[in-house]
Amino acid sequence: MQLHILQGYIQHIYLVQHNDSLMLLDGCSRADIATVTDFIQQQLGLPLEALKLIIVTHMHPDHAGGAHKLRRLTGARIASHPKARRWYSGLLGRTAHLIDVSLTWWVATRLGKPKRHIWYNPLLKPDLLLLDGQQIPGFAEWQVLYTPGHTDHDLSLLHLPTRQLYIADLIVSVKKRLVPPYPVCHPNQYKQSLQRVQDLAPSKIYFAHLPARAAESIDFAAILAQAPTLPKNHWHSMKNRILHTLGRQDRSH
Fold it and tell me: Looking at the record's lineage, which domain of life comes first (predicted)?
């Protein structure tokens, strides 16, 4: 197994190579499509059809935005957790999608990147549904772990022979400190997922937005201590702002 790490628009792109078959450990963003296809053809010398599977660990723009178009270009299948299909459904879901696309542009600006086209279909149409503990079809050395909390459908991916683990956005960094991501939609599930990763004791952990590091170098207790007890997401933040504003108005009377 070879793991190719590419620099994406705002995140790392992980491309697994097993002989002449390729798997993307995440669907990356719409802005990353040329990065992926050029690497396959020019660096690896393989046809686009070598990409056999695209995992979507969760539906945020830098993890799902390129999936549908890459499938059209390569013929690869898309795989996700069953709940991913409904994440952006309905009026609230579409609103959340608009916010998440805007947040992606904000992060890109902070990284000094130009504004790129990143719009994508918010309703995922996967070919395969992945469940906890399942080995990935066509890439049997890899196992699916259901690690919700950031969303209700997050997946982590474990390479069984080497015990290397990709956890997407389960941990991020703010001011060089490892912290929980934003949002944390399900705090209890998030803590359970983080504890599960610690108990698993992988040899190395790969992140969407951080360089890989040995699991033993991570202070999981410190990250758990920072995890919210209530949902920390768009709707909860908006509710708090409204209540805060109303409270100030009441005090002004």
Answer: Bacteria
